[in-house]
Amino acid sequence: MITSTTDPRPADFADVRATNLAVVLRFVREHAPCSRADIAASTGLNKATVSSLVADLIDRRLVRETGLTENRVGRPATMLVLDGSPYAAIGIEINVDYVTAVAVDLSGERLLSWRRSFPGAAGTVGQAMATVAGIVRRVVSRMTKQERQVLGLTVGVPGLIGTDGTVRIAPNLGWRDADLCGDLTKALRDPGFPVQVDNDANLAALAEHRFGPHAGTANLVYLTGEIGVGAGIILDGRLRRGGQGYGGEIGHIQLDPLGAECRCGRLGCLEAVAGIGAVLEHATISPAEVELELDEVVRLARGGDPGTLGVLDTVGRNLGKGVAVLANLLNPEVVILGGYYVPLAPWLLPAVETETRGRTIAPDAGGCRVVASTLGYGAAALGGAARVLDSVDSGRLPRIS
Asked: pLDDT tens, 286-297?
């Protein structure tokens, strides 16, 4: 039987085969190069079934043979690796001041990575949608020229995203109840591939879990370090969104009732006292200007400027208070700081770690480490592509052409 979100239903042959194809594809991704015998021994599928499934995956150009290996007991075996050369997965990240687009192949190899200025807070949802649609068309055109089929598109937005893909509220963009998924699909004129919308922190967590140095960590939290602060949460190896998709909004936990005003309208939110706006005197619209200001902060910190070091220590301690909430509530193995936190990590991390240890009830912060991301500013876009690849891993395979 295969269970659904409602009642159990009988599994037909197509269900079972799709599930088994996904099992074999995931095994090859995680263990390549591997043989058909390796797959049978590890998955419990019989050899004849594995041979049939592998033949199907080869026909779909998802897997390919690489030759024989003799470094094993018995007869030489034909080894298998991921192929996926005819395919691409696209991820887009919409932020307050920029849009990032990433395309990857089935193995996660980047085929394209673009970053464009984007005055998101100054424009309407319609203008934003038109901009994103234009970028997607250019990415799809590039993939078409490479003779690649687009498997899907996921768009990351900093805000509350419903399970239906509606942007319920994105405070830093000024959006409410925007059907970004539906409007984008219409703007792309039914593109022939699925379009999804998700929270940017969720997608960045997926990117870290699939591609980062802590890939495969069962309990992982990613903290965005953009204009806003959000948390993407992986627990027991699965992304957790909450009942309606609104989980992870740690940036709006109030740390100081008398603190600075947050963009959400409340006072003393973590985002207001530990976000990039707390580091800079003002958070400008242009990403180039924000990064220039950050470069100056880094220069002053390296030079030992007392005022700069004091600000970074305060921001780090406030951020540590938020991390301690995560450590006490979720007991993650690692919390990853992303976005604009990365260049500031040498000065933020000591204060974050000290504050986290002091405020976590479990010894040694429950084993929680705090590290800086290595995926760059495009982590959420990369995670958008990862979500598409996850759907392939789950059995939504491209048809045989």
From this structure: 555 788 889 999
